[in-house]
Write the structure tokens for this entry.
Amino acid sequence: MSVEQIDLLIVGLGTAGAAAAALCAERGLRVVGLERRSLDASGARWVNGVPRWIFEHCGLASPGPSESHATGVPFHMLAQRGPERSVITGHDLMEVEMPALTRRLLAKAARHGAVLLEQVEDVQVQGGSVSARLGTSTMEWAAATVVDASGLQGLRLLRGEQDPGPLCAAAQQKRALVDPQAAGAFFDAHGVPPDQTLCFTGVAGGYSILNVQLHGGKVSLLAGSVPALGHPSGLKIIQAFAQEQAWIGEQLDGGARVIPLGAPLPCVGRAQQVTLGDAAGMVFSAHGSGIGQQLLAAHLLAETLAQGGDSWAFNRRWQRDRAGALCAIVAFRAFSQSLSSDELRALMASGVMGASLSRATLVQRDPVLTASQAIAAVKGLATLPSLARRMVPTLARMEALKAHHRRYPKHPEGLASWQQQRARLFGAIR
Ligand SMILES: Cc1cc2nc3c(=O)[nH]c(=O)nc-3n(C[C@H](O)[C@H](O)[C@H](O)COP(=O)(O)OP(=O)(O)OC[C@H]3O[C@@H](n4cnc5c(N)ncnc54)[C@H](O)[C@@H]3O)c2cc1C
């Protein structure tokens, strides 16, 4: 059997794998992608919020009207059922149909010469050697770099037995809108215009949400929580809400899955292997968003390999540029998970989570506060001494984690002690 020599072999063609295939093939790398499902059923099957700035940063066209039904819609975050709230405006979050985005990325990869194989079975990886079964035949490749983009339940190439941390059980559904007038009255009763996003937070523990949107004569529902803490899953939250609200009809599409909320892997590339997306824990933990982070990582991988770098070079750049912020957000998520419903209300009413901070968190950017915004946050915190006692150490831990990632070792030999120090900074946080 002949063994084909290639630059990059990608296992798993969800958004992470599809983005890596498109961005690497575009730069002239010889790419093969392997997908267990059929190509038109790979990856996420629901609507995800992705900030527009990330598409721009990665050199990808922003989703058009056939891929995205809303951009920058004001986002009303209520403490449970309200009335306390934070309203986020002036942001660039797009509501993206994931099957359409994945299809576009795969088409771009194929246009640039990537070979994409579907319904492959029994993928085996050893260093850069990969074999897979396709129907009755077995194929083999020798790849300079192998990418594991096979999701949380996939190959676990660099993850091995490392714990992904708490899991958010999320669900997203579009449902029929059977009574638009009653839906309008529901939004009205919560002080939210019907064309804007209504987000109930803390509906099942500190880390949980239920988003409700109306568009195109349909209802869009998104919910997530951490069932391991004794709460109902996102799917159960949606089902209970739809049953309670007579204006919501049958389910039209959508899906449910778990999202890893723990720290990303301390090493996402070494010895010819790279791990991307959920497989690597590349998730913005505050709201369980993986798509933006995996697009950024796929872009960085393509740039690094096209410049002649290897998997370790990619890993080091990603850890220094991106992972510190993701780890800081893991610490913030753990804090938010510990909030009681009264604390959540008090936090919203105090102005600590002002519009700037909420907007930056929504679109996955580091917040930049003006002096007056910082003073307002400090003043708000001063009115909540018991919360401040937990929040101030969290903020210090977040900064320490960012600084630690900026000191990521130059060589793999330094990894073990760096990793131990990172574990110490996380302490008991998972
Ligand atoms: C309901 C819900 C709502 C969400 N909302 C948001 C949101 O608003 N914003 C956001 O950014 N993120 C959101 N997320 C998270 C986001 O959807 C995930 O982070 C993302 O889909 C993970 O993509 P991935 O490509 O890493 O993995 P996956 O989507 O799991 O893709 C992995 C692919 O690999 C294939 N595969 C697995 N094993 C093998 C194998 N052995 N051989 C070959 N192929 C294999 C699978 O078939 C699959 O196609 C949400 C998640 C859920 C569940």
Observations:
- The chain has three domains: 4-69+96-163+264-322, 167-260, 327-426.
